[in-house]
Amino acid sequence: AQKRYAGLRDLPAASLCGETVQLYMNAGLMADLPSLQNSGAEGVGLFRTELQFLTRTHVPRRRELAQLYSHVLDSALGRPVMFRTLDIGSDKVLPYMKPQDEPNPAMGWRAIRVGLDKTGVLKMQLQALIRAAVGRPLYVMFPFVAEMSEFEDAYRILMESVAREQRLGHGMPTDLRVGAMIETPSMAYAPKRFFEMCDFISIGGNDLKQFFFAADRENERVRRRYDTLSAPYLTFLELILARCAEAEVPVSFCGEDAGRPIEAVTFAALGFRRLSMRPASIGPVKHLIRRVNLQALRAQIDDARDRGISNLRPVITDWLARQ
Ligand code: PEP
Ligand code: MG
């Protein structure tokens, strides 16, 4: 399949109406990095740092992590890499972490909640990132932020880490951009200041969708029951887009849906200009975006919603089939 789309690699994901969508890839291991070149991705929109913690038998040391992150940046050849701080708990349990007996781990002690309660590991990881990025830009994002104060606290810890590095006389990244992942519906209603504080926002659609519909992403029985292409969910995503636009903060959608061509083209029609997906999806998504007039698709979606249609999938697929 990669071969089939190879001809598209250096072409932009530009729609027939002239809108360009930036396609980024998701990664989590060094082995993923060669895909950056092969897929033609603009950068890594989501680097899941927990994978490197999961494949070890002990908490990695700061020096070891800094080296790893530095290799990641080297392999990215100047393209941006958005490092997401540890998202452990829920479906990602570290072998050397005391198992938590939680009835609902996905809604439990995970991600930034762990980072803010046990700041040692978060600080160590942030220092490793800062050291790895000396002399180049650094993008850091915090996962599973459910309240503005959590972002503020994580932001403060990051700034303290920067100050500490400066005090120690270490070099600095040339630029530091700080982002939050929106994975809970609460953040769509966060104060405007939250959006203004963020340099970028990334929607974690896998989690956001499970909490929007209250349907466990790991539970085969209910996982596919609710469709991404439903009017309520798309309307909700539009609200987040509007909040980001109001604060002029760039937003990307990362999560499995961004790599599904029909979903991806729908997100683009709603107004998303950045999507991050597994590398193998970049070709198929780009192929479809280049064949579609996003404004016309948008008009179809709006019209169907005005007519009170909730399940938009048949509307969208039928329209796409006629293009
Ligand atoms: C998501 O929730 O959509 C996401 C990108 O993060 P993860 O799948 O790692 O939870
Ligand atoms: Mg998530």
TrEMBL record:
Its main location: cytoplasm. One of its GO terms (molecular function) is phosphoenolpyruvate-protein phosphotransferase activity. It is found in: Cytoplasm. One of its GO terms (biological process) is phosphoenolpyruvate-dependent sugar phosphotransferase system. Keywords: Cytoplasm, Kinase, Magnesium, Metal-binding, Phosphotransferase system, Pyruvate, Sugar transport, Transferase, Transport. It comes from the Bacteria. GO terms for cellular component: cytoplasm. Belongs to the PEP-utilizing enzyme family. This is phosphoenolpyruvate--protein phosphotransferase. The lineage of its organism: Bacteria, Pseudomonadati, Pseudomonadota, Alphaproteobacteria, Rhodobacterales.
